[in-house]
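Hi C.,

You asked whether I'd gotten around to modeling the 189-residue construct. I have! Everything is below, sequence then structure, no commentary in between.
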Amino acid sequence: MKPFFQNTLKLTFPAALLLLAMSAASAQEPRLQISNLDYLAGKASQTVDVNVDEHLLQMTAKFLGNDPDDKEIKDLVSGLKGIYVKVFEFEHENEYSAADVDSIRTQLRQPGWAKILTFTSKKEGSVEVYLMTANDRISGLALLALDPKELTIVNIVGPVDLSKLSKLEGNFGVPDLHIEAPAKTKPKN
């Protein structure tokens, strides 16, 4: 090889490895890019857009009371990095397209994400739940709720305790997802 090409290869190969490592790291980002759906607000009859970052979560948690439910919510949000919700309600069916939903699903096909639940009903639409794991820990959760007249995306970034997730419903903009808290079992005598 000529010296120019050898030197170029010596310089570009490490840079290419660095870029590859950076793109792999960014591919495992638990925060979804849901702002690309903002244009649907013009079609929607009602829109909910919640962007609560880590700083705002911690600041808001300080104002919660001291009753047991509030304490559980404080504990749950203490490690979270953000809660992001978009809800689009439409007057008529099919005002959003499969391509709109696929822009989110494409992100959820990245390494680290795994679909853990799919619920489908002809009357109620469908719900998909995804978890991102890193080092055997949950680092993010995504929920897609699809109804002919409504599209909901929920993205929780940070360590998520699934057993306490139902406590977030109705708080910090998280809609009622009908998540049942695990039943407490009584000890046998």
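If it helps when you're writing up: Residues 4-27, 181-186 have pLDDT under 50 and may be disordered.

Thanks,
B.
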